[in-house]
């Protein structure tokens, strides 16, 4: 039987900000964080993670391991013109801004400017705020406006979506015209706390249950979409990469 101190340690890890790992072993997740993520986490991202920890909705933040993954991915695809739908306090936004070249751009959208401004001083101190064009409000009207101008079609290298799950398919319809051929769209939370394989009558939090069917519908639609290649990864709460091929 595990000692009381070990059990308390496991409990603390579950409460960690951005803890969305689907690994069955918390100790293994902690090993990944302490061995590979935290030692290489930029100081600004660490500071923003700590700022976010004090916010009552801190579970909404991108996990540290996913932030590291996004930064590596952006560099691998040489992204320059990017978009982010759903910003919260800006942890994934900062990861993107740090990974982009100095003349890189991020069109960032969120319905809550107050949360974004919580992390903005850290972003400014990191010297990357000039890369961000923040728009407050729903994303769909912004996307529709972009689509009205032909020059925006196929102009984005990378798009990260971490927002209202009931609109993911609406976003997808529009984003496929905005991302370039060979470009990537990344959808976050596609395993939705593991609820995608839970029985419908399984106990789960109200917001998990509400969005569960939307996430399942998205996953089925992406798997059937011949315009993209996909790769679903158990990073964070599940992230699905979509590479446009048509």
Describe the structure.
The chain is α/β, with parallel strands linked by helices and 246 residues long. It has a single domain, classed as 3-Layer(aba) Sandwich (Rossmann fold). It is built from 9 helices and 7 strands; from the N terminus they run H-H-H-H-E-H-E-H-E-H-E-H-E-H-E-E. Strands 3-2-1-4-5-7-6 form a 7-stranded mixed sheet, with helices on both faces. Strand 4, helix 8 and strand 5 form a beta-alpha-beta unit. It is globular, with a radius of gyration of 18 Å.
Compose a concise summary of this entry.
The chain contains nine helices and seven strands, in the order H-H-H-H-E-H-E-H-E-H-E-H-E-H-E-E.
**Class in CATH?**
Alpha Beta
Order of helices and strands: HHHHEHEHEHEHEHEE
Shape: globular
Q: Round the Cα radius of gyration to an integer and report it.
A: 18 Å
Low-pLDDT stretches are: 1-18
What's the count of strands? 7
Distance between the ends: 55 Å
Number of helices: 9
CATH architecture: 3-Layer(aba) Sandwich
Neighbour order of strands in the largest sheet: 3-2-1-4-5-7-6
Helix-and-strand structural type? alpha/beta
State the major sheet: 7 strands, mixed
Share of helix among residues? 40-55%
Estimated share of beta-strand residues = 15-25%
Provide the CATH topology: Rossmann fold
Mean pLDDT: 92
Number of domain modules: 1
CATH level 4 superfamily = Vaccinia Virus protein VP39
